[in-house]
Design brief:
alpha+beta, binds coenzyme A
Length: 249
């Protein structure tokens, strides 16, 4: 059963067997974005300044400041104090001085929504996508998915292919993001489940059979018209889904 996102208690505690996924809205007034951007570092503000469209710039700022505020809750730190370190393929993690907390996280945004996933001592990847119709028809699956996935997708009635396409996309992306190795992990070398209502599963990773023991996938229901997935190290974890409320609202 897919979990609903609920209002969290005032103090959120992350047990070692828990995975917390926070859902956050990204569209705010210019004046609120101006306030939120104050917790960003100079390099994050520079990055925000490179977006061509104001809307994308603002969503990046809101996603980063929300991520910082959420992490700050677990670390008992101010959002602006948090420092990130970036892996070879760009995956952010806490900088060394904060790593003893064991906190690991990943972020995804799509359209006007973001998901921030947080764990303790477990690598994690999260992906969120707005379901767009038509992409499943455009040979994108044939280019990015494995033959087994393409076969499962094309065997479905056309009316079910959009959702199945994004199930597959988000599950593959969550797994890649958990590994943090970007597209150096060949997309056709592993298979995920994709049928509508089929639980999220990593089905095989060719040449790396231990990967099935290492990771478990989970499906998310972020909102109508969106799909999401997490990939988390270990099999002994449970998901809790929280709704982020901007403190000014
Ligand atoms: C960058 C990448 C992580 C995906 O990004 P995306 O799906 O466009 O965007 P998302 O919103 O889901 O994730 C972006 C966030 O992931 C995090 N991230 C960046 N690089 C990452 C990496 N190598 N591993 C994990 N997380 C990463 C960052 O927090 C980033 O947020 P930011 O842009 O605000 O800094 C990478 O996997 C990629 O480029 N994928 C290409 C897409 C593709 O071909 N997918 C095929 C799927 S079948």
């Amino acid at each position: 059963m897919r979990l609903q996102f609920s209002i969290p208690p005032v103090t959120v505690k992350l047990d070692p067997d828990e995975v917390h996924v926070w859902r956050a809205a990204l569209d705010f007034s210019e004046s609120r974005v101006e306030v939120l951007q104050r917790v960003l570092t100079e390099d994050e503000r520079n990055r925000a300044g490179r977006f061509y469209f104001q809307k994308d710039r603002n969503r990046f700022i809101v996603a980063r400041s929300t991520l910082r505020t959420i992490l700050g809750k677990y670390l008992d730190a101010n959002p602006e104090q948090i420092r990130f370190h970036y892996g070879q393929y760009g995956k952010p993690r806490l900088a060394e001085q904060l790593q003893k907390s064991g906190l690991l996280f990943n972020l995804s945004h799509s359209h006007n929504m973001a998901l921030a996933a947080v764990t303790c001592h477990r690598e994690i990847g999260v992906d969120l996508e707005l379901i767009r119709s038509g992409l499943a028809d455009e040979q994108i699956a044939e280019r990015f998915f494995s033959p087994r996935e393409v076969h499962a997708l094309r065997a479905l009635p056309k009316s079910m292919q959009d959702e199945a396409f994004f199930n597959c996309w988000t599950r593959k992306e969550a797994y890649i993001k958990a590994r943090g190795e970007g597209l150096s992990v060949p997309l056709h070398m592993f298979d995920v489940s994709l049928l509508p209502d089929e639980p999220a599963r990593l089905l095989s990773v060719r040449g790396e059979p231990n990967e099935l023991l290492r990771w478990r996938l989970g499906e998310l229901s972020p909102a109508a018209g969106f799909v999401g997935a997490v990939a988390v190290e270990g099999h002994d974890w449970r998901l809790r889904c929280w709704e982020w409320t901007d403190p000014a609202s």
